[in-house]
Write the structure tokens for this entry.
Amino acid sequence: MTALLDEAATTIVTGGSGWFGRAFLAAIRDGEGDTTGPVGRSGVVRALVPDPGDVEAVLSVLPRAQVHVGDVTEPSALKRLFADGAGASVVHAAGVIHPQRVADFEAVNADGTAGVLAAAKDAGVRRFVHVSSNSPFGVNPTPTDTFRHDEPYHPYLGYGRSKMLAEERVRAAHSNDFETVIVRPPWFYGPWQPLRQTTFFRLIRTGKFPLIGDGSQRRSMVYVDNLVQGVALAERHPAAAGDAFWIADERPYTMLEILATVKQALRDEGFDVADRQVKLPGLASRVAERIDRVLQGRGIYHQEFHVLGEMDKTIACDIAYSRDVLGFDPKIELHEGMRRSIRWCIEQGVQI
């Protein structure tokens, strides 16, 4: 097994109050005292959050975190965040996925990333890990295809384009003195989930989530703890520098399997789950995609049309390269991960 790089004296996390950000900080908390793996660390941890109301969300997870309030588009906020940041490790997870305006995609995901890169480089950061997405690669051309390590860009609408531009800027910034790594997760699931994922559970529980077509379209997903492992390896593995990695669960799942697994996990946690299943033809998704494209062309983003427009498509990736190079080994599979997600909702008093 390849020895990991020494722990950086300072870890800087953007998007600290987000879904992944809090999962990453929770893993640091849970790994206190264990410096043998990639996640545990004893050094300074700084987190950037966009709003003063998010400070407590971070401190409730990792009380020792130094929380900075600001936006990735604000140079003054970034200057404060990266003060005395020489030799630091950066996990850049800030971004927008469902904005109010299409223009926000590029402003935050692309230009914001460029600003974070510049501030990190000026500060003398050692390694910069960028949390990207599957969206720069669009959708798989056939139901059996999977995205590979050397997949060419084919961005899906505004979000995909913005994340592609961000990746291009991250790659261009890489040097021997400023190492960059790209991590590409697909659809997340797990604790710290936002409202949209809770709505997904509720629609499945009540039998209102639509199955598009026959449900054979496949989706790669990643449980947040699996993603934390992948990002931490990208931070610390010497062979990761200048490269990009798909980080996902062991295998893709069909939509039919995803819905059936969530239903079973809900039942296992004591919920009554409707037996009925709404079914829609693939045409419904294709019409939604067409509407989404028209709206985005006019600068308007509509979350429901966007999500429905993707639901008939296969979006699947191959993690073999990440296994071979990083030693990435996802431990949690779909059923267990969904049960943990549901338990977290129950513990937090979140209504499903």
Q: What stands out?
A: Residues 11 and 89 are 5 Å apart (CA to CA).
